[in-house]
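Incident log, structure service

09:12 report received: a user says their structure output differs between two submissions of the same chain.
09:20 pulled the input from the user's history:
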Amino acid sequence: MCLFQLRPQPSDSGFVRGHSKNVAKNRLNLTNKKFVMNIIVTGATKGIGRAVCERFAKEGFNLAICSRNAEDLKTFKNELNSQYPDIQVLTKKCDVSKKRAVLQFAEFVLKKWDKIDILVNNAGVFLPGQIHKEEDGILEKSIETNLYSAYHLTRAIVPHMVEQQSGHIFNLCSIASIMAYPNGGSYSISKFALLGFSKVLRAELLDKGIKVTAVLPGGTWSASWKGVDLPLERLMPAADIAESIWSASQMNASTVVEEILLRPQLGDL
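09:34 re-ran on a clean worker, output below:
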């Protein structure tokens, strides 16, 4: 199941003058650097993050990506450059649970690019457990990775989007952002908070030409499910999540998809 929640985007915000015209020009002339689109994706080498990178690279977007594993970044960059030689791929090793590392990643990107079209706060960690049983420190680790990373990176990037009067921010929330489930524990707490962050950000930026979309996927094939004995059709492919993000990014300047809710056809696990 996929549910899109759409609302009008203020038409006098400058978004039409910026983002929508650049999208059209980008489609006409990807080789002209003036009109090439730039996207930042955290947690980019696996699962949903990787699928998002592949989907936008296919459309000619330049990519700025980060991951905790430098070798994974190098390998993925080579794969992308081999398949899409005309795009630029910026990479930086980054532990997004560390504020300083997140700000260094933002600084690295902003030194290379003078325009950010899309930010995808995808990096996250899932540590199963129950609140009254999980180890001490699990809440802090979950909040630092799943919430603070998006908060700090967004704060670093948004001023530049405000200046250019355009941009789109996607926050990878979860079904766990809207419902409690067994062994959700601190993970659910952090994802509820990320959805709240998205709603507040949406309200703050709606008159500045910047769109904010919360993405709430259910069970999706990723590294978190590695080794689990389940039939392929029991979970969603990451490419479907990426496709929904791409579709939301292509809406008319006067429309914003506030939330995307996706679940496996057979229901939640």
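09:41 both user submissions now match this output. Likely a transient worker issue. Closing.
09:42 reviewer note: Strands lie at 2-8, 38-41, 62-67, 89-93, 118-121, 167-172, 210-217, 255-262. Residues 11-33 have pLDDT under 50 and may be disordered.
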